[in-house]
């Protein structure tokens, strides 16, 4: 459709892909731990399949066990390589383990991986698995900015996380009708302008997980967030801050950041 | 630009839902084929959602909505820009049969890497042979296994059937499977070691050559040249070239990775590497069967002369296969080399 390759903007935890239309989307990368769990699950599946097949083969070759052993040794070897390559190649970059752990192998341009890439990255496992327990592959993942093992580097692929997402619903951050931050509209505007998406997400998570946090931990986290906002982002007057608890401060901030974001609201 | 998120979401949500549903339908189809009307609708919804993503990214702090839209855009982008192979393309039996022709073609295209693999192995052979010939002390280091150090004992045991653990076709069958899997794994490692800029591949080939040269000279020195030839040639005629082809694949991979940025035909290059691997795996299946069922039988069961003749015939057939099968008009060959970058 279009010859131009997407621009890659890798960060430590995600890959940003700029499409030919100039739209940038980010793909969260899978860390070594989730990949290891998926691989262990796949190993269990392969071993179970091979064992099941083994019983069948030995039953069929009961009178000629040597040929049974030959069949099962070759089948085990072939399944070991073909399981990952065929499933990833034909099942849109996922094995059973990867699907259960919400992982997917894709081309590093953000597109689905191709059959030959699936084979290359799986055959390269003989090198990544060296010397024991995927040590070479693990070191490669940790040293790569886009978390690629050597098989991925050769095949030009990477593994992304794909947790199920649905369209977010509206959240009422402040049930009270009055938000004292709106008295200081210039400061509220500054808060909106200076807060990064990461910081806004942090405030959002801290408030959402209120009931999951132990009281002491909650107090500490809220206190640190307020201190950070007051020193690094915007300095609301002391007389206002002293009247508010840390939680109320963060609720007001979240209302400014995520609530009805029209200027009219800020002006009250 | 500051967005009224509530209004924005209420307005745009139907478009996102529609795109989500269309993507669900398309991703659920085995062949992923789109009708023209669907392609047009997908393009339209993708453009709208991408615009929405841009607006949210630059006009609002809504991390969850951004993540959702990013996922949606990524999925639509993959559907629009990726040309999926259809099932019929993948499962054409004729295409898979072509591997028997494509493999020798790939071998010839990358013959310079084969020559390099041969050179490294010959260097190893020469050093191994030279060391055993002129430095008897090196025998213990190069040939640690007792049966390799003492050819007389080995030949005596073999000819009297004492060294044979293979007393039936069934055990030979099980043994052949072990040989096949082990050899393929070692060859695959040699090919994969190309990622070390070919250094690992070269070391593995050199070590292999070293052992081969040491064994050949040790046995010949003590008057068992015919035995060792008859022992190794029937399976070695396929096994040794396949290890060399693994080295060829390793050096090819090293070159490929070094010039990856300039390579516009990465896809073809990967197929080329895979073809070499597939070809050597087929060769090693034959070598494993020969080693288990044929090579381990000696005089008087199988005369040495006969074994050497079989091995030489195999080698001749393999040479003809690798050099002549699939050979086309030289001008057409040159054109193909040009198209695949003559890597």
Defining key terms:
heterodimer, A: 268 residues, mainly alpha, 3-stranded antiparallel beta sheet, 13 helices, 9% strand, B: mainly alpha
In short:
Chain A has helices at residues 32-60, 65-90, 96-100, 115-123, 125-128, 135-143, 150-155, 185-194, 197-208, 215-233, 238-243, 246-258, 263-266; strands at 7-10, 14-18, 24-28, 103-107, 157-161.
Large-scale geometry of chain B: elongated
Q: Using DSSP, what is the number of strands of chain A?
A: 5
Largest interface, with counts of residues having CB < 8 Å to the other chain, equals: A-B, 59 and 65 residues
Strand content of chain B: under 5%
Global morphology of chain A: elongated
Indicate the radius of gyration of chain A in whole angstroms.
Answer: 26 Å
Structural classification of chain B: mainly alpha
The profile of the biggest β sheet of chain B is: none
Give the number of domains of chain B. 2
Straight-line N-to-C gap of chain B: 52 Å
Radius of gyration of chain B: 29 Å
Per DSSP E runs of 2 or more residues, the count of β-strands of chain B stands at: 0
Give the helix tally of chain B.
Answer: 16
Mean pLDDT of chain A: 84
Residue-averaged pLDDT of chain B, rounded?
85
Question: Between the first and last Cα atoms of chain A, what is the distance in angstroms?
Answer: 50 Å
Low-confidence stretches of chain B: none
The main sheet of chain A comes to: 3 strands, antiparallel
Q: How many domains, in number, for the residues of chain A?
A: 2
């Amino acid at each position: 459709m279009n010859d131009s390759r997407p621009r890659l903007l890798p960060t430590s935890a995600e890959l940003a892909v700029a499409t030919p239309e100039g739209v940038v989307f980010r793909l969260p990368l899978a860390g070594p731990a989730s990949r290891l769990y998926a691989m262990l699950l796949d190993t269990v599946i392969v071993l179970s399949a091979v064992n099941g097949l083994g019983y069948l083969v030995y039953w069929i070759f009961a009178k000629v066990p040597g040929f049974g052993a030959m069949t099962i040794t070759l089948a085990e070897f072939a399944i070991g390589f073909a399981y990952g390559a065929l499933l990833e190649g034909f099942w849109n970059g996922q094995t059973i383990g990867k699907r259960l752990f919400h992982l997917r192998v894709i081309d590093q341009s953000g597109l689905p991986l191709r059959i030959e890439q699936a084979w290359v990255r799986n055959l390269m496992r003989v090198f990544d698995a060296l010397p024991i327990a995927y040590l070479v592959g693990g070191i490669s993942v940790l040293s790569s900015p886009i978390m690629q093992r050597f098989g991925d580097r050769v095949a030009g692929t990477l593994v992304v996380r794909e947790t199920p997402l649905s369209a977010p619903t509206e959240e009422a951050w402040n049930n009270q009708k009055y938000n004292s931050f709106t008295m200081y509209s210039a400061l509220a505007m500054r808060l909106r302008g200076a807060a990064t998406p990461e910081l806004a997400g942090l405030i959002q998570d801290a408030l959402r997980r209120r009931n999951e946090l132990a009281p002491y931990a909650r107090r500490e986290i809220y206190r640190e967030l307020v201190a950070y906002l007051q020193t690094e982002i915007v300095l609301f007057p002391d007389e206002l801050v002293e009247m508010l608890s840390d939680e109320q401060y963060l609720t007001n901030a979240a209302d400014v950041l995520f609530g009805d974001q029209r200027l009219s609201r800020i002006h009250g | 630009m500051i967005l009224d998120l509530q209004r924005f979401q209420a307005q745009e949500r139907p478009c996102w839902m529609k795109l989500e549903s269309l993507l669900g339908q398309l991703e659920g189809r085995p062949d992923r084929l789109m009708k023209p009307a669907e392609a047009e609708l997908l393009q339209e919804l993708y453009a709208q959602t991408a615009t929405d993503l841009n607006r949210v990214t630059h006009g609002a702090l809504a991390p969850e909505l951004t993540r959702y839209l990013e996922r949606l855009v990524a999925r639509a982008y993959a559907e629009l820009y990726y040309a999926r192979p259809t099932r019929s393309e993948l499962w054409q039996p004729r295409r898979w049969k072509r591997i028997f022709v494509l493999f020798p073609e790939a071998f010839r295209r990358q013959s310079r890497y084969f020559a390099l693999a041969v050179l490294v192995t010959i260097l190893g052979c020469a050093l191994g042979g030279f060391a055993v010939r002129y430095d008897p002390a090196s025998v213990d280091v190069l040939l640690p296994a007792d049966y390799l150090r003492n050819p007389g004992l080995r030949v005596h045991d073999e000819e009297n059937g004492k060294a044979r653990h293979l007393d039936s076709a069934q055990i030979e069958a099980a043994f052949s499977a072990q040989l096949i899997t082990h050899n393929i794994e070692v060859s695959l490692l040699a090919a994969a070691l190309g990622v070390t800029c070919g250094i690992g591949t070269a070391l593995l080939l050199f070590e292999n050559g070293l052992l081969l040269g040491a064994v050949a000279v040790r046995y010949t020195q003590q008057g068992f040249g015919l035995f060792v030839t008859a022992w190794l040639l029937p399976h070695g005629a396929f096994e040794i070239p396949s290890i060399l082809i693994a080295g060829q694949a390793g050096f090819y991979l090293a070159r490929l990775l070094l010039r990856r940025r300039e390579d516009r035909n990465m896809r073809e290059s990967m197929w080329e590497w895979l073809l070499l691997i597939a070809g050597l795996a087929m060769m090693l299946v034959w070598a494993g069967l020969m080693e288990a069922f044929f090579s381990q039988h000696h005089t008087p069961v199988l005369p040495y002369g006969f074994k050497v003749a079989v091995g030489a015939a195999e080698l001749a057939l393999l040479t003809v296969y690798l050099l002549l099968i699939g050979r086309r008009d030289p001008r057409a060959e040159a054109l193909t080399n040009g198209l695949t970058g003559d890597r």
